[in-house]
Amino acid sequence: MNKSYITNSIALLLAVIGYFLSQDILFAIGIFALSGAVTNVLAVHMLFEKVPLLYGSGVIPSQFDAFKQAIANMMMTQFFTDQNIDKFLSQNSGAPVHFDFSNVIHKIDLEPAFDSLVQTIEESSFGGMLAMFGGNDALQPLKQPFIDKMKASLVNISEQDEFNELVRAQLEQPNVLEGMRQKVEAIIEQRLNELTPEMVKDIIQQMIRKHLGWLVVWGGVFGGLIGLIVALIGHFNS
To answer: Which of 44, 138, 192, 208 could form a disulfide with 68 if both were Cys (CB 3.0 to 4.6 A apart)?
Structure first.
């Protein structure tokens, strides 16, 4: 059940019981608890909704552009710094991270490489000898074995520390880092531009609405305690 509803119901019930039973202390506890809980319910509501004549209400939708800019700034200044990118590219030991290029390598079309090799042979001093054995056609059965061997060799090279060190060194070049940041920033900005004020409100509500319910609960609790103190003071003074 909704925490706000339970808190307000209990506070109202205490106030009603205290009123009809002429129990001033109980009535004060209920009234103060109800006022504290209702005030916090209104405060939570005003975070997300514009209330006429109440300045500052609907602050989250009204600050939509500032909210988007704050997210973009946080992403770029906290996550995509030179230091964090270096951590991403390095292991705890300081050695370069080994990226898995195998899937990319297996998708590469190496037929042009084989065709270039054949052309090089044909244009070399072995071209005449090759022509005696059928020319270009004689090498075609070697195409697939060549491609398979090349891919296996490329995968093996990509797994070596020296290769990954070269990749890290290249990615850490100032111009490369700046280019990466610009692309990431463009992606973030594009995605944020797809957001609407309503979407932002829903996102924040989903994140904190559950926890904001406790504001109502504690508003009722502390309001009740204040009511008890006030009632006791009035009782002793009388």
So the answer is: 192
The segments of the chain whose pLDDT lies below 70 read 1, 82, 86-95, 97, 126-127, 130, 132-133, 135, 207-210, 238
Alpha-carbon torsion angle 163, 166, 167, 173, nearest 10: 180
Closest C-alpha to 71, from 180, 188, 208: 188
Residue 94 dihedral angles phi and psi, to the nearest 5°: 95, -15
Residues of 169-202 as b/e, b for ≥16 C-beta within 10 angstroms? eebeeeeebeeeeeeeeeebeeebeeeebeebbe
CA distances for 205 relative to 158, 173, 199, 211, angstroms: 46, 41, 10, 10
Residue 1: per-residue pLDDT: 46
Q: Could you give the 3-state DSSP secondary structure of residue 188?
A: helix
DSSP string, 67-124: HHHHHHHHIIIIISSHHHHHHHHB-TTSPBP----HHHHHHS--HHHHHHHHHHHHHS
CB 127 within 8 A of CB 119: no
CA angle 127–121–123, rounded 5-degree value: 60
Which pair of structure tokens corresponds to residue 92?
A: 């705890």
How far is residue 169's CA from residue 90's CA, in Å, rounded to a whole number?
Answer: 11
